Amino acid sequence: MAFETTKITLDPELVCRENQDGTVIVMKVDDSDNFFKIDGVAALIWNQLNNHKSLNEAYQSILEQYDVEASKLESDIQHFIETLSSKELITLH
Questions:
Q1: Residue 33 and residue 27: Cα distance in Å, rounded?
Q2: Which of the residues 27, 32, 40, 51 has an alpha carbon 20 to 30 A from that of 19?
Q3: Helix or strand or coil: residue 74?
Q4: Which whole-number Å values give the CA distances from 28 to 10, 75, 92, in the listed order?
Q5: For residue 33, what pLDDT band results from cuts at 50, 70 and 90?
Q6: pLDDT per residue as tens digits for the range 37-83
Q7: Which numeric CATH code is attached to 8-92?
Q8: Which residues make Cβ contacts (< 8 Å) with residue 77, sequence separation at least 6?
Q9: For residue 1, which of 71, 90, 88 has the smallest C-alpha distance?
Q10: CA 30, CA 16: separation in Å to the nearest integer?
């Protein structure tokens, strides 16, 4: 996944809340009662995207702030984005 060119749109029907422990709870405002809990590095990525940052900006920010191998971070982000997309919480462009 090329982070520089990947554009992500959050579903406009999402409601999210960040808890004091850093976890984020996401819920779609529809007939379902499904919640999605996000924590760890995924919560950092979510917060960046929710603040209208690009995927590449989120990647670069986390890479600069934490002692993590670039390839591991790329893999983690790709998995997280695929999960969000499969749950129809985001749209990839």
A1: 8
A2: 32
A3: helix
A4: 11, 26, 17
A5: confident
A6: 999 989 999 999 999 899 999 999 999 999 999 999 999 999 999 99
A7: 3.90.930
A8: 1, 3, 45, 55, 58, 59
A9: 71
A10: 14
